[in-house]
Design a protein that fits this description.
With 317 residues, the chain is mainly α. Helix content is 83%, strand content 0%. The protein contains 9 helices and no strands.
Length: 317
């Protein structure tokens, strides 16, 4: 009887010990699972911050490379397409004015030329934006004054060569016609907001450089934090890859938004050659952003490939 009671007591104690051990093991597993989840959340958080900082850096770099690049902005208003449109506009107006004033169009030859319009336009754009030392901010007005003076002489000489009697009033008319054509060129060439663009570009470039430096340092620091978290290196590298791919998608998304706006809404600038040049400039900026996204995508692919290799090594070991 005593033996049976002892055996029962021993069995009960053994069952209690087994249950207690199982309970502790279960709690330990839950704690470890909770710790792993918390660790992963922390890694995801830092990976998200890395995505934000890389995106800021990429957008700042793309902005500095194109929309905030003074040389590329100036190229928008000095390229062959733009100058050709400006020249055709001024030439057509000059010919119309000559016909109205009974002046042979040959008076314009050698004066209203593509080269002359191009030089005056370049002096205006590059001088206003302080991109060329030989052009001051007002040298273009002197160039237009010289062109008007040459045009006046050419008109007077053409009238004489054509055996057209030139009265004193017609001499004054030649000067008035030449000044009118010069004023038209100045009006068509002048971009009222060019000085504002210059100010915005200067401030924007400074902001972009500061943003690149700050976000670049933060990106490197966050990448180091992520890659050194825990012992599973391949997971850390994979998180960095995800951050890079998300940044690339952000660039592509911005390009897509521009594409939708471009197809549904025109700028409506006048004249047409100005509108076309600005649209081409915006397209080149989008191409720069697209190129930035491609670089990020390639970097993401490289890091993801490295993550796969590290995972394979970890599984084999």
């Amino acid at each position: 009887m005593s033996s049976t009671h002892s055996s029962s007591h021993s069995h009960s104690h053994s069952s209690h010990s087994s249950h207690s051990s199982h309970s502790k093991s279960s709690r330990s597993r839950r704690r470890r699972s909770s710790d792993v989840k918390a660790f992963r959340k922390t890694r995801y958080f830092f990976a998200f911050l890395l995505f934000v900082s890389v995106t800021v850096f990429s957008l700042s770099a793309a902005a500095k490379a194109c929309p905030l690049n003074k040389s590329r902005v100036a190229q928008t208003f000095t390229n062959a397409q733009y100058v050709s449109g400006l020249y055709e506009d001024v030439r057509t107006y000059s010919e119309d004015m000559c016909q109205r004033n009974f002046v042979p169009e040959s008076a314009l030859d050698g004066i209203i030329t593509f080269g002359a319009v191009d030089e005056i336009n370049r002096s205006y754009v590059l001088g206003t934006m302080s991109l060329d030392e030989k052009y001051s901010s007002t040298v273009y007005t002197d160039n237009i004054a010289d062109l008007s003076a040459e045009l006046e002489k050419s008109i007077s000489a053409t009238l004489k060569d054509s055996d057209i009697k030139v009265a004193k009033e017609q001499q004054n008319g030649a000067k008035s016609l030449a000044n009118d054509i010069g004023s038209y060129l100045l009006n068509r060439m002048s971009i009222t907001y060019l000085n504002s663009i210059k100010t915005v570009l200067n401030l924007g470039t400074t902001a972009a450089v500061v943003s690149m430096i700050v976000s670049g340092i933060i990106s490197v620091a966050l990448a180091l934090i992520v890659i050194t978290m825990g012992s599973e290196l391949y997971r850390n590298v994979r998180s960095i890859s995800h951050s890079l791919s998300a940044s690339a998608l952000s660039c592509f998304f911005a390009c897509g938004v521009y594409g939708i706006v471009h197809d549904t809404k025109a700028l409506g600038l006048y004249p047409l050659y100005l509108n076309n040049s600005v649209m081409d400039f915006l397209s080149s900026c989008v191409n720069t952003l697209l190129f930035t996204g491609v670089i990020l995508l390639v970097m993401s692919f490289v890091t993801m490939t490295q993550a796969w290799r590290l995972k394979s090594k970890a599984l084999d070991s």
